[in-house]
Structures are given as structure tokens and as C-alpha cells.
Amino acid sequence: MTSKERLLFGERIRNRRNTLNLTQEYIAEKVGIGIRFYQALERGEKGVSLNTLIGLSKALDFSIDYLLFGDLSYSLKNPMTDILNELSQQQRTDALTILQIYASACKK
Predict the structure, then answer these.
(1) Containing domain of residue 90, as a range?
(2) Are residues 52 and 8 in the same domain?
(3) 97 to each of 13, 25, 88, 104, 106, how far by Cα in Å?
């Protein structure tokens, strides 16, 4: 990863952690890494191993594609993905809520 990619990666994990209202300590423990290392990841000072990347993806409940590239999916091209990729993180969260309400109403 380049230094710019590390900074963007750190920003994405920090934003996701904040969206979930989780602490750095909680994520570090869940992933099995030290708090200082996790903080360095958020600041973009350190790169990430495959095992740590997988752990972060699980702990933050986010795709590896998004964590690495800032895109919901590089391999999946469909209208829904294209629409979601144009939204902010908060708009994506809102869209998910709307879809969950709609899906629930359709089951009745």
C-alpha cells in the first residue's frame, strides 16, 4: 500500500468504527491486535496483513473491497451497487434502513 492508500484505509476503518459507535479498544481486541497498532492503522501509519484485514472486515461488518478500495464491490456490477457507490456513508446507512423496512413490509 502507498502512504495515500494507507491514509484512505485508515479513514475508512475509523469512519466505520464511529458509525457503529465502537471503541478502538473493542476493535483491536476483536481483531486480536494491539491498541497501538490499531491506532496506527487508523492514522495510516501502518500497512495491514491479510489476517488483520480479514479480522477488520469481520469486526466492522464491512466488505474487504470497501476497506481496501472504498468501493462496495469491484467485482459486482449491478444497478444497486452503482447507486450505493454514489452515496455517502450516512446515506448508505439510511438506504439500508429503508430497504429493511420495505422488505419487512413485503413479507406481510
Answers:
(1) 77-108
(2) yes
(3) 21, 27, 14, 11, 14
pTM comes to 0.65
pLDDT tens, N- to C-terminus, the chain (108 residues): 889 999 999 999 999 999 899 999 999 999 999 999 999 999 999 999 999 999 999 999 888 888 888 765 544 456 777 788 788 888 988 988 998 899 999 987
CATH number of the domain encompassing residue 1: 1.10.260.40
Whether the CB-CB separation of 12 and 56 falls below 8 Å is answered with no
Give the pLDDT score at 76: 45
Same domain for 48 and 31: yes
CA angle 78, 83, 85 (to 5 degrees): 95
